[in-house]
Write a structure and sequence with these properties.
The protein contains 11 helices and 5 strands; from the N terminus they run ααββααβααββααααα. By secondary structure, the protein is α+β, with helices and mostly antiparallel strands. Strand 1 and strand 2 form a beta hairpin. Helix 2 packs antiparallel against helix 7.
């Protein structure tokens, strides 16, 4: 039930179309969101919301990344393709997600192939275009004072979000923030009979820092340089930083001074 953009000549408002905070369509969007997460365990709610965002908006993918030292942590995505785009930004250390995390301001890039986006993120734009992306809308998660992550929406054709659609996107981001804040942590979740919701995610992210430590030892460089080498190797071979980190930790990839 994707919403059509305002400049779509066939954009007849359907039953799910948002009409702004005071309109019935906005209320229906809220109902769709509520239905989409109803009955989901807390740890599954963010992924459900990514799927709902794709259903409600004229986008082809959605992902959520959390702020972390070194590089963002991809939490969830609506598809493998959306997950790859989130990992791409983490690997490059650049792109709309990183921009939002640093500034706290949303990015609404209707066509990443046009300035100023080609100047702001030239490498990300090149890779994203190769992956079939033309528009990216990235919204901050958190409060005005603290940005804890981003909701990134991807589209395979250029276009803007109408005011109504942007209202829905912000509604999803707001619900996503509440969901993240409500997630049980550590012992609280273990007492409920489950594992900490971030355990697997943290384990994967820890591999990156374990790999950085190994690269530091192999090359005799500092942490920033080692992270740059890891990212550079991933980019040079068309892989994600996490993929290369797994190889380093498993001793399938070694960084030597003359071959790094």
């Amino acid at each position: 039930m994707a919403l059509r953009s305002r400049d779509d000549p066939d954009g007849d408002p359907g039953p799910g179309r948002a009409r702004g905070p005071g309109g019935r369509g906005y209320e229906q969007a809220a109902e769709v969101i509520a239905e989409g997460v109803r009955g989901a365990p807390p740890g599954e709610v963010p992924a459900r919301l990514c799927t709902v965002a794709v259903d409600l908006l004229p986008v082809d993918g959605a992902s959520v990344s959390l702020r972390s030292d070194g590089m963002p942590v991809q939490l969830c995505a609506s598809s493998a393709h959306a997950a790859y785009l989130a990992q791409l930004q983490a690997t490059l250390g650049d792109g709309p997600c990183r921009w939002v995390l640093e500034t706290g301001a949303p990015v609404l890039a209707r066509d990443i192939a046009a300035p100023p986006h080609t100047d702001r993120w030239p490498v990300f734009v090149q890779q994203a275009l190769a992956a079939g992306v033309r528009a990216v809308y990235a919204l901050p998660l958190g409060s005005d004072a603290v940005c804890v992550g981003t909701l990134d929406l991807y589209r395979d054709s250029p276009g803007t979000l109408s005011d109504d659609q942007l209202s829905v996107a912000r509604l999803v981001a707001g619900v996503m923030t509440v969901a993240l804040m409500a997630l049980p942590h550590g012992e609280e979740y273990e007492l409920q009979g489950g594992e900490p919701w971030l355990s697997g995610l943290a384990a994967e992210h820890d591999k990156i820092y374990q790999a950085v430590g190994m690269i530091m030892a192999q090359l005799g460089v500092g942490a920033d340089e080692a992270m740059a080498r890891l990212r550079g190797d991933a980019f040079a071979h068309g892989r994600t930083a996490l993929d290369v980190a797994r190889d380093v930790v498993a001793h399938r990839r070694r960084f030597d001074i003359d071959t790094s």
